[in-house]
Write a structure and sequence with these properties.
There is one protein chain. It is built from six helices and eleven strands. The chain has 280 residues and is an alpha/beta fold. The chain folds into two domains: 152 residues, Translation factors (Elongation Factor Tu (Ef-tu), domain 3, Beta Barrel); 109 residues, 3-Layer(aba) Sandwich (Rossmann fold), CATH 3.40.50.80. The protein has a six-stranded antiparallel β-barrel with strand order 1-2-5-4-3-6. Strand 1 and strand 2 form a beta hairpin. The longest helix has 20 residues. It starts with a helix and ends in a 7-residue tail after the last strand.
């Protein structure tokens, strides 16, 4: 095992210990496998959404930590060749950065929308916004036969014995929420707030009586969602799941913990992206 890998393992343990004291627990990762996969189908389930179906023998029987499993998608770099990093490295960003620029793959993060462990396929829904971002550009041009890397990372959803759940997400976290809804029967009193730049860009979601979809309508990310969250009785819930744009996740957590006195250990929050910045 390399020195880099040993250092990354130590850093990972420190990060996990820090997170345990700051918010709700997360599932233990089912592993950090690096799998080369092939695009076998491309669809458009909604405006500005591309559904990419990947296949790999490594997906057969692959275990996930929870329904909202997320992963690193490695797309070919400038040379057009798919060059993958050392699979033993825990810090995938650092491992990618060490690859010569010409062959350095592009790394972006997505949630598994659906996984078929028998057929060895999985779907990922990518919200597209033109060709400005590499993930969006790749999704718009992806075709059957293209090769990519899949870096298994982990999941976020771990409510334990909690049953009165409140979700606040945006369109980037909607695929994970849909997967959660398909994986379990939520109590009718649960509440699900989905904020989107345009609700028409959301793929159809499983129905739930507590689901509310709100248009951002030019407002700052999280503004509309927070307004709806303020209308709820925070004491009615025993677990909160706040995921999406960074300001959405942080502002909702700040309101719950600082203003409403909610136990931070019942609040799971994650900033998937930040307006005006690329997440790498």
């Amino acid at each position: 095992m390399s020195i880099s890998t040993l250092l990354e393992k130590a850093q990972s343990r420190i990060a996990k210990a820090t997170n345990r004291g700051a918010m709700a627990p997360m599932p233990e990762s089912a592993g950090h496998r690096l799998i080369e996969a092939e695009v076998v189908a491309v669809g458009s389930p909604a405006a500005s959404v591309r559904r990419i179906t990947l296949h790999a023998e490594g997906f057969v029987g692959l275990g996930f930590a929870s329904a909202d499993e997320y992963f690193g998608l490695l797309m070919p770099g400038p040379s057009g060749r798919l060059v993958l990093p050392d699979p033993d490295r825990l810090n995938i960003r650092a491992a990618v950065a060490e690859i010569p620029e010409e062959d350095r793959p592009v790394l972006r993060w997505y949630t598994v929308r659906r996984h078929d462990p028998i057929a060895g396929t999985l779907d990922v829904d990518i919200v597209t916004h033109g060709t400005a971002g590499p993930g969006s550009a790749w999704a718009l041009s992806a075709a059957a036969g293209d090769r990519v890397g899949f870096r298994q990372c982990g999941a976020l959803f771990l409510p334990g014995d909690a049953s009165r759940l409140c979700f606040v997400v945006d369109e980037t976290a909607a695929p994970g929420l849909s997967a959660i809804l398909e994986s379990r029967d939520l109590d009718p009193d649960c509440r699900l707030i989905v904020e989107a730049s345009d609700p028409a860009h959301l793929t159809p979601m499983p129905w739930h009586p507590g689901l509310t979809v709100v248009s951002r309508d030019g407002a700052a990310p999280g503004e509309r969602a927070l307004a709806l969250l303020r209308e709820l009785d925070a004491d009615a819930f025993d677990y909160f799941y706040l995921c999406g744009e960074s300001d959405l996740a942080s502002s909702c957590r700040r309101y719950l913990v600082s203003e409403r006195g909610v136990d931070r250990h019942t609040v799971l929050f994650s900033g998937y992206w930040k307006l005006g910045q690329a997440r790498v």
